[in-house]
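So, read this over?
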Amino acid sequence: MTTHRSSRKEQKRQQILTAAMEMFCKQGYGISMDAIAEHANVSKQTVYAHFSSKDQLFETCIIEKCVTAGVGWDLPDDTREPHLVLREYGWLFQNLLLGDEARSTFNNTIRQSDTHPEIAKIFLEQGPVRNINLVSDYLQKLVEKGDLPKCGDTQNAAMQLLLMLHGRSVYWAFFGFDAGEDEETRRRYVNECVDMFLRGYGYTRKID
């Protein structure tokens, strides 16, 4: 009985998150909790039983999107060669940024930051800052192992890598244009960014 109740509760939570992500992307933060509840086919009381406020719901949507895109795994626990870990992360990160939901949410956040400054802060903390910290923690592990002898500030290094990983495709997409890069071109760019980054910070092991 407890398992069935837990499963039903999780199903409701996912319904709410799916509906909220769709509506935040299409209409921005101004959407009401009533509208989200209606779109999720649940009561408003059910929404608040899972999320205490719209801020918390928006924050959870950002985190959930990162996890769904695959960039939420614990990098420091990954024992593969660093270039393989960062190449995979870089590819997933770029795909996340190119997704319609991520771009729509970003555009709506910027557009509504004057009237809803709280969402810009949430987006920054649960999107860019979260990813910077994730990569920084991984780089710190490499520094402690002696793999990155030239890296003195892992936060700055993480920021440098993430900005490089945007590439032409993401930069063009910010302005609503398709850069026309196929998957092979994008993968090659990501791999070259990672390899150059590692070498720049003194990584000497062989990179295949």
About this structure: The chain is about 75% helix and 0% strand. The mean pLDDT is 87.
